[in-house]
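Continuing the batch. This is chain 6 of the set; chains 1 through 5 are on the previous pages. Same settings as before, nothing changed between runs. Recording input and output for traceability.
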Amino acid sequence: MKRVTPAQVLWYIPNQIGYSRVITAVLSLFLMQKHPLWTTGVYGVSCLLDALDGTMARKYGQTSQFGAVLDMVTDRSTTTCLMCFLCIKFPQYAPVFQLLVSLDISSHYMHMYATLSSGGTSHKNIEKEQWLLNLYYSRRSVLFTVCAFNEMFYVALYLYAFPQLKHYNVPFVGPTHIGGLLAVLCLPGYVFKQIANVVQLKRAAILMATRDAELATQAKNS
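Output for chain 6:
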């Protein structure tokens, strides 16, 4: 029997793509203050690579728990870093951004932890009764579109912080800020993502409470 080593797992093709995402995300941090268009391009590459790693994992049979965690941690970290910058540019909305960061991190962490602790093998396996989460996680096209709109909404707010990008003539609208226009276009997908975060946070809490109740019952009856 040919044994797969930990080193081989670390260098799976999808995990190499994950490392590339980390590099592009870090690069965007150093560009963020003064180079909005370059930042948007580099940040966009990082987000596009997010869709590629899963495809490569399925194509080459290189799925791994490490890859799943790396993907989720990178997602949460890049979004959080961008929202930290938004707190600086829009200090009056800092509490809102802080709440959204907390919701994003806590819902995903609790969702993954609840799945693993209840015996699940993937956080993307959702029962059909949870129709919104099932739609979100079971259809890759929906997952990619919603996540793209979510990230693009924050990028749009980021672009809105740079006044020099406001003089764009939009047909039937006139001069407008490209960031504001992009934010309006991405708003429906962004709202869907926040609702999904709330739903999966609630589901995770119920899963963990159910498991705790089962363990408490076993302890009392033993």
